[in-house]
Amino acid sequence: MSAGRGTLLVVFLTVFIDLLGFGIVLPLLPRYGAWFSASGWQLGALMASFSAMQFLFAPMWGGLSDRVGRRPILMLGLLGSAWSYGLFGYVSSQGREFQWLGLGALPWLFIARIGAGIAGATISTAQAVIADCTEAKNRGRGMAMIGAAFGIGFTFGPLIGAACVSDDNAVALTSQQLQLMRGWEDSQDVLGAAEFLQLLKTAGPVDEASAASAGLLLAEPLPKSRLKAILMTPPSGLPGYVACGLSLLALLLAALKLQESRRAGSSAAHRGFRPGTVLRHLGNPRFSLILGAVFVTTFGFAQFESTLSLLTQKFGYSSRWNYLLYAYVGFVLSLGQGLLVRRLLPRIGETRMALTGIL
After folding, report:
1. What's the CA gap between 218 and 334, in Å, rounded?
2. What ranges do the domains of the chain cover?
3. What is the DSSP secondary-structure string of 253-283?
4. What is the pLDDT of residues 125-173, one digit of tens each?
5. What pLDDT shows up at residue 82?
6. Residue whose C-alpha is closest to residue 170's, from 232, 112, 226, 108
7. pLDDT exceeds cutoff 70 at 109
8. What is the DSSP pairing of strand 103-104 with strand 222-223?
9. C-alpha separations of 110 from 42, 106, 161, 166 in Å
10. Is the CB of residue 161 less than 8 Å from the CB of residue 321?
11. Alpha helices in 93-174 (DSSP H)
C-alpha cells in the first residue's frame, strides 16, 4: 500500500476538524433565518441546500478522485469549505438591509450553504481513502473511523458554537415591525412579553417561533431601549469565522501530512465519473436496498435537524440549548461508531450490524 496507518490518522483528523466547522454553524441556521426574516419554506430550503449539494456532487467528486487522486480532491473540498464558512460568517453579521453585488443577505446565505455542501461532498473521497488503505476484512472498521470523526466533530463543534452566541433568541420582524421600533432609542418604558407581542401584531403577523422567542427574551420585562438594542443587533459572525479557520487548519494538515492513497495503474484511475454507471447500479437489488435504507435513516435525521430549534423554543429553552442537544447527539454517534461498531462488527458481521442499526 502507498499509504498506511499514518494516512488513516490524517484522514480521521481532517474529517474531524472539518466537521467541527459544520457542527458550529448548523445549529445557528434557524437563528439567522429569523434575523433575516426567512419564511418557513426558505429556512427549510436553507437547511436542505447543504445536503442537496452533497447528494448531487458526491458521485462527481468520487469519480474525479479516481482520475486525479484523493489528495487534491480532499484539499479542494477543504478550501471550498473555508471560503463558504468565511462568507457565511461575514454575511450573517450584517444588518437586515445588507446588499452586496445586487443580492440581499438571504441569497448570500444560500450561496454560502450551497458552497459548503458542494465542498463537503468530498466526504466520499475520504471514504475512498479508507477503502484504498484497508483490506476487505477490516474495511467496515475503517469506515467506522469516518463515522467516529463525524460524531466527535459533531460533539465539539456545537460546544464551541455555544460559547460564541448569547442566550437571546432572534425574533423574526417585518419591515413594518422594525419601523415601529425606530423611536425606542431613549425610551425607558418597560414592556413584558404579552405587551410586546400585542404591539408587534399591530404592525404585522407574528409566527409561533417568534412568539416563543419573545417569551424567552422577556421572561423579565425590559425597557424599550434595551429591547430594541437586543433585537436590532445582528448575530455574531464569529461561529462562521471559527469554522473557516478550522477548515484552513484541516487544509494545512492535509497539505503537509496526507499521502496519496490511490495506486498508480489501478482500475479506478481510468474510470472517472460516469453518471450512467450510477444509474446501472440502481438496478442492482442489493445496492438499491442499501441505498434505500440509508435514505430513510438520513431523511429521518434531517427532520430532526430542521425541527430541533422549533422544539426548544416550544418548550421554553434558549437557543444555546440547540448546541447542547446537537452535542449530545454527536456524542452518542461517536460512541456508537467509535466503540460499539468497531467491537461488534467482527463478531456479528456487516449484515446483522446494518439490520440492528436500522431497527
Report:
1. 37
2. 5-169+235-358, 175-231
3. HHHHHPPP-SPTT-GGGGT---HHHHHHHHT
4. 888 888 887 777 777 777 777 877 888 888 888 888 887 776 555 677 7
5. 93
6. 232
7. yes
8. unpaired
9. 9, 6, 20, 24
10. no
11. 105-120, 123-133, 139-162
Of 326, 333, 331, residue with least CA distance to 30: 326
Mean pLDDT of 238-257: 89
Second-level CATH architecture of 5-169+235-358? Up-down Bundle (1.20)
Left (φ > 0), alpha (ψ -120 to 50) or beta: where does 135 sit? beta
- Which DSSP letter does residue 336 get? I
Q: Residue 223: what pLDDT?
A: 92
CA atoms within 13 A on the CB side of 125: 35
Encode pLDDT of 217-229 as tens digits. Answer: 888 899 999 888 8
Closest CA to 243 of 120, 147, 151: 120
How many Å apart are CA 27 and CA 9, to the nearest integer?
28
Q: Work out the end-to-end distance of the chain between its first and last CA atoms, rounded to an integer number of angstroms.
A: 37
In the three-class reduction of DSSP (H, G, I as helix; E, B as strand; rest coil), residue 7 is classed as helix
C-alpha cell at position 91: 454575511
pTM, whole model, 2 decimals?
Answer: 0.80
Three cell numbers written together for 284: 442492482
Where does residue 260 rank: exposed (0-12), middle (13-18), buried (19+ CB within 10 A)? middle
Tell which phi-psi region holds residue 204, choosing left (phi > 0), alpha (psi between -120 and 50) or beta.
Answer: left
Bridge partners, residue 104, by sequence: 99
Average pLDDT over residues 234-258: 87
In contact, 248 and 82? CB cutoff 8 Å: yes
Amino acid making up residue 99: Q
